[in-house]
Amino acid sequence: MNLLCRGRLKLLVASLTAVVLLTWLYLLAGNLENGRSLLLAPCLADTPAAQVLERSVLESRVREVEEENRQIRLQLSQSQGTAAQPPDGNYANQQWGASADTGPEDGDNTAEEKNNHTECPRSPPVQKCELIHVACVCAGHNASRDVVTLVKSVLFHRRNPLHFHFITDTVAHRILSSLFQSWMVPSVQVSFYDADELKSEVSWIPNKHYSGIYGLMKLTLTKALPSDLTKVIVLDTDITFATDIAELWGIFRKFTDKQVIGLVENQSDWYLGNLWKNHKPWPALGRGFNTGVILLYLERLRRLGWEQMWRLTAEKELMSMLSTSLADQDIFNAFIKQNPVLVHQLPCFWNVQLSDHTRSEQCYTEVSDLKVIHWNSPKKLRVKNKHVEFFRNLYLTFLEYDGNLLRRELFGCPSQASPESVKLQAALEDLDEDDQCYDFRRERLTVHRVHLYFLQYEYTPAEDDTDITLVAQLSMDRLQMLEAICKHWEGPISLALYMSDAEAQQFLRYAQASEVLKNRKNVGYHIVYKEGQFYPVNLVRNVALRNANTPYVFLTDVDFLPMYGLYEYLRRSVVQLDMAHTKKALVVPAFETLRYRLSFPKSKAELLSMLDMGTLYTFRYHVWPKGHAPTDYAKWRTATTPYRVEWEADFEPYVVVRRDCPEYDQRFVGFGWNKVSHVLELDAQEYDLMVLPNAFMIHMPHAPSFDISKFRSSSSYRNCLNTLKDEFHQDLSRKYGSAALKYLTAQRNI
To answer: What's the half-sphere exposure (Cβ side, CA atoms, 13 Å) at 165?
Structure first.
């Protein structure tokens, strides 16, 4: 028997040697005889250099044949017909899941394609201006905050136009639509899809995962996204990119004809079922796959009947599993278990999973290996990992990164400007850079990014339509006032905070550490991100005003503490003065103290006593008496019913008005005339100024702002403010006609 086997082996070797020799002779003589066209790459011109290239191509082909011969001999020399199988955890993936390093243009090429291979340079995996589509499911305040960090990391590295597709609830849609509209990033499109319309598709699936029903929404993307969208990258909101997303998009080209989903292997032992006694996970191939990063070939999925297939899979498994533990990931894995040929396995650095007890450290040896970091543990930044400090710093870099720097154009990729951008550009071109007030006028046109409802917000409207929101603005140096205001005002609050990206994160940590602020859900915090050299105080005020959700608003400053019980007193006054049917502005008299520690008066009588003792003063009586003198403090001392006062020049009281009142004029930035102009317009619209006899507020001391210092030290600043005043009066006259002439006259008489 052994002699017979050796004889057959010698015969095979002799036959192969003859085949190789004949092939070499064919390549040397036959191809050259038939002309150059079979050897020369079609992309090369017929030049003298072609002869050199022809020779190198011939040599290359000979080497390929020799290498094939060596491989065949190696196989024949092996005593066993098949190789040993790999460990169970990786077997299935190696058998049917092509890695991102192979594809139709690599390991899966046909013999004919290999023989026709030329030395032409390959086209890049992604064209220069190719549009990349990215989808996310985002619901609620916290997820909306997380997705901004994801978007920053993508924008930081990207070199291609992007189209973000967000499946959102009402909250996230309001937040993200406002954010992207104000962000105005070139070559970025954003589309929103109502998650409520998709809930019926997945609400029948019991889910134990903390993501709730929204954790199942990725299953519906073939239905939710436009029917003409062929492929999309799907990301969880807790993802951070460390490379250009175009690299991930390019992997679609490596899919075989049958592959429809690209995923990274799960890096924990969850699907192996050995985490604890009686642990029974959903079925999966080997370790299973993580769905934090998915490449979905939507066109192919629709042809396969994806919607019906995943439903049948879920129905079948739920008969024994009863509910999902990891939301959509369980169903994706069960589907792949039944249809392994449909998945394309991505290298694990495309989804480095930072949950406890994972094998993520095997995905990288150098920092340059990192592509995508996935904070998929409920502990998020507190997860245990040997390199967690590095990952945390990378995440914090994007968390605090100035989003204004991402408003950069993509060179060589022209994008269609939005109507808002065109209008803004035209207005900027109309400005005269030689104008001494150019900086003031330029600031008025600056579009600031706005992140509404930065923290959790819950508000239930009052049944009697008398509710009032306290509206104010602040910056980082007034943060210490928030807890005191929340203690003095129990009603809803709308606050606009002017901060940098880094300061917004400091505020977040401050609010999360404060027991007072954590327990108040009826406070809306709206971040207006810093840009430019001035404090756009009236723009920030308008953000807070627009996002009040009550019929009435109390327009104040954050330096003031309202008297205890003011909220309920104002609600009664709204009814008493019939504000629903009349145009009134209720004036809350303002006082101040020079003491940082104050025993706050509990009544009007106690306040009057402190006023007589010199512990309190009428607001700004010694610096700017005209600002509040028309309140008539002498009359207020003995008043028991509301009384009407007349407008006077420079009057700037704090008032309660209907929410549909005129907005603040945004040309006034920094210090000076920002509230005066607003009260002036209230009077122009014939609001009655009514002083409340039993209401008061007290200004707490603080260091002078930077803007007031500029006002006091710069004559050009004061000159420009006067110019803006004159222009405001002219606009008022055009708007309200001859009735507005009294304001100009009053201003000139000062």
So the answer is: 21
